[in-house]
Amino acid sequence: MPTYTDSTLFHLWFPNLFGYKGGIQVYTSFFLHALQNLYPQSQYDVFLKHDVQTKPDISWLPQTRFHFAGAWSVQFRTALFAAQIINGGFQQRPNLVIATHLNFTVAAYWLKRLTGIPYWTVAHGIEAWNIKNSAIKTALHHADRILAVSNYTRDRLLAEQNLKPNKVCLLPNTFDSSHFQPAPKPAYLLAQHKLKPEQPVILTVARLAEVERYKGYDQVLKALPQIRHTIPDVHYIIVGKGDDRPRIEQLITQLDLQDCVTLAGFVADEQLCDYYNLCDVFAMPSKKEGFGIVYLEALACGKPVLAGNQDGATDALCHGELGALINPDDVEAIALTLIQILQGAYPNTLIYQPEALRQKVIEHFGFERFQQTLATLVDKHFPPTIGR
Questions:
Q1: pLDDT (0 to 100) of residue 7
Q2: How far is CA 1 from CA 4, 91, 315, in A?
Q3: What is the DSSP string of 163-190?
Q4: Could you give the angle at the alpha carbon of 133 between the alpha carbons of 128 and 139, nearest 5°?
Q5: Distance between start and end Cα atoms, the chain
Q6: Tens digit of pLDDT for each residue in 350-381?
Q7: pTM here?
Q8: Residue 217 CB neighbour total at 10 angstroms
Q9: Domains and CATH numbers, the chain
Q10: Average pLDDT in the 238-265 region?
């Protein structure tokens, strides 16, 4: 087993850090921050497939070297990036390679075969389920450690790929609790969306992409007519942009919901907390979610949350301890549960205690917990010879 020293060199293979902020990118950012907090004397070479330069919104240690592949054309980027990371491994011989996307494990596997360099990878969600690619399967079996963001993903990997249980460890998603906390409904958003302070608001935050229709906003829209029979002034806001918006607009028209649905479009990160605080319940009954950082953000704002019961959201809501888990295909159950929540009648009273809900989600998924878990995993790989 290798030993951790001040001269330990990490090679980190990331899709991107500084551009689009999807779930994997956010996780990757927290991962880098935690790793460098834990091992501030180590050396870091970070290889970024899709970025072209750094940005000041993410901090890093001075001994961090970035290598960018984003300037290459998309047609050749994968092959050139693979050559870059393998060549970097040959030249520098890092103590450990960590890839935050499973697709990078094939290069890591060949590097290990040729040099013996160990590698870890991260399994998030849909990319880790029902894997057919034989090269990725082989690479997973030879990985030194696989970090799964949820028990759901871990269980599927173990069952589908016949991996050894001790190879797949849990490192759940985390969030920045300082950015998300309870507050009154923002007056400027009430005015912007022509809402009354007492008006019940349902919120979904999701990328509106054709390939991500599983997020469940369709189901909430279909549930709205039934919800309106009981709560006539309910309003539904969807935050996010993408190529699925025209179809959603059509569905809204077909269901005659134009007066009670707002497509807010893209919302900047610094404004997102205000939207969580605008709502009375956050609803995303997805059925292919690897975990769902948005659930944590809404919970940290003290909001009741409704999610699907067939994916990684079960982890985010601690199997119902922190919110409502519903069959994402059952529109009637979604409607009835949202009515129940909005009427204050949901049996789990924790969802109506904003500060207690916030403390629970921080306790389970706060950054300190994430960093402690990562420290335990890395220290098992590198028994420390000197203190951090």
A1: 77
A2: 10, 22, 32
A3: --GGGEEE----B-TTT----PPPHHHH
A4: 75
A5: 19
A6: 999 999 999 999 999 999 999 999 999 999 88
A7: 0.93
A8: 26
A9: 9-174+366-381 (3.40.50.2000), 187-362 (3.40.50.2000)
A10: 96
